[in-house]
Amino acid sequence: MVTEPAFELLEDHAAFGGRQLRIAHSSATLACRMTCSVFLPPGADAGAPVPVLYWLSGLTCTDENFTHKAGAQRLAAELGLALVAPDTSPRGLDTPGADERWDLGTGASFYVTATAAPWAPHWNMHDYVIRELPALLEPAFGLDATRRAVSGHSMGGHGALVLSLRNPGHFASTSAFAPIASPMHCPWGERAFSAYLGSDRTTWRAWDACALMEDGADFGPHPVRVDQGEADGFLVEQLQPERLEAAATARGLALDLHRQAGYDHSYYFVASFIEPHLRQHAEALATAG
Amino acid sequence: MVTEPAFELLEDHAAFGGRQLRIAHSSATLACRMTCSVFLPPGADAGAPVPVLYWLSGLTCTDENFTHKAGAQRLAAELGLALVAPDTSPRGLDTPGADERWDLGTGASFYVTATAAPWAPHWNMHDYVIRELPALLEPAFGLDATRRAVSGHSMGGHGALVLSLRNPGHFASTSAFAPIASPMHCPWGERAFSAYLGSDRTTWRAWDACALMEDGADFGPHPVRVDQGEADGFLVEQLQPERLEAAATARGLALDLHRQAGYDHSYYFVASFIEPHLRQHAEALATAG
Question: Would you list which residues of chain A are within 8 Å, Cβ to Cβ, of chain B?
């Protein structure tokens, strides 16, 4: 009996001595077909498990934005780090409003487990990233389940913080680029949480990075690096990094906010500062596991 | 009297301490509106003229492929090198067939001066890259007209070689990624040259890198680096780097062909090997001018 492969290999490119892959699979969690980009550093098939960074992208992105534009593969190859970039939401479903609402439909998710119709049960990117994707990819590519890091951009930067806060020990190292600090307190987040979670704001706290810190969650032993461009057009109304700083400080958590003069919200900003993030993750992962 | 600015600034992003710009302007040479991406390294506005690499992209590309995907800005910032990435063809004209023929219409050009209808007089990317664009950008951004390098990918790799061979002294340093070696001897090139230049093949020699070398042209004092992936699907039928090697060897020209096992035709290949190209250009430009 031949076992069906669990995913289809859409692309396989040599890159920096390693391999840049793109896979597609049928997701049980989301009940749709999903794509995911995976970079394997040189020597990843040699036997020793490879530490891995999960990258969560922002609103309107796919698995390809980080993969094409962040220039992360060069240093990941040098550091021996795999990169996994999932898509940002379920796709191809008939969920009402999904194609009209860029801020909460296709290309959005806030990496929550939605509880309100029509987004539940499909909009469950939390479980997809925390459970289904690692179970699918880690054994297949020899990735080290004891040495995972997480980072992301904007909505995905908040996703990285929340997934780390909600799942102690799952990620050994956490960082973020221009994250939405507190969806409960910004227009993007309020619209999305109202839709995904309903109108009872007390249920929102379990999906808000600042509220999770206030309610006792932490990131584990390693400091969290956050970079934020000061010329980012979303800074004041949507991102509000001062809320993250305040919540971390109140709890004594090591969250290092780097404000970068002149930088905007684009992937040029991510590319410009990906290096210190990857180096910090690699250092933390070297002592994890 | 207020002077009209010669171009419109479409984008201006901080990147690696410098600026990633995208401009649009009305091209007199091509008689259409064109976009162009420009990276300025840190300190480019400090007064000293900045050496500049012109990058020519391949079939179906725009000015953005290299800019988004090659990861060149990091090292260009370190080396103090500006990057200019023009579009690959005229756009938005009513040229018959331009939108149907990806291999010679919109997104194609082979960087020639077309002489046959309907491509003449618009398909004149040679003069656009050699004359109009430098005259527009170099004074505006403080780029050093005595320290120009040129490189490119595929059709644009051949464009880099041909523009360098046809214009002695214009570029101080030349390189290419997976260039079409000899358009006269491959299907893409034969179709394009038939359309742009007509059926008299003797006129084609002035636009074919191998024929130009055979007929006495050279690249100037600095060696030319060429990288070619050995898993490139276009290698045998379209690219044929052995023709470049033979033509250079016959003339005693220093053309260093690096065959890279496992690499394909994508920008992952370009990104993987852009560093040695940029370092070689920067070294050559340091002694030019």
Answer: 13-17, 20, 68-69, 71, 73-74, 229, 231, 260, 262-264, 266-269, 271-272
CA distance B122 to chain A (A): 32
Closest Cα of chain B to A37: distance in Å?
13
Looking at every residue in chain B, the average pLDDT score rounds to: 96
Give me the phi and psi of A107, to 5 degrees please.
90, 5
Q: How far is B279 from chain A (nearest CA, A)?
A: 16
All residue ranges of chain A with pLDDT < 70 are 1-5
Quote the strand ranges of A121-250, DSSP E.
Answer: 143-152, 173-177, 224-229
With contact defined as beta carbons under 8 Å apart, do A6 and A36 qualify? no
* Distance from C-alpha of B173 to C-alpha of B223, rounded to nearest angstrom: 8
- Quick check: B102 pLDDT over 90? no
pTM of the model: 0.95
Q: Which residues contact A28 (CB under 8 A, 6 or more apart)?
A: A132
Residue pairs spanning A and B at CB distance below 8 A: 63
Catalytic residue (one of A63, A87, A227, A232): A232
pLDDT in tens, A260-270: 999 999 999 99
| Active centre residues of B (catalytic) | 154, 232, 265
Per the CB < 8 A criterion, the answer to whether A57 and A65 are in contact is yes
> Tokens 């890159």 label which residue?
A15
**3-state secondary structure (DSSP) of residue A27:** strand
Give the neighbor-by-neighbor strand order of the sheet with B255-260: B8-15, B18-27, B32-40, B82-86, B50-56, B143-152, B173-177, B224-229, B255-260
Yes or no, beta carbons of B15 and A69 under 8 Å apart? no
For residue range B143-183, list pLDDT tens digits in order: 999 999 999 999 999 999 999 999 999 999 999 999 999 99
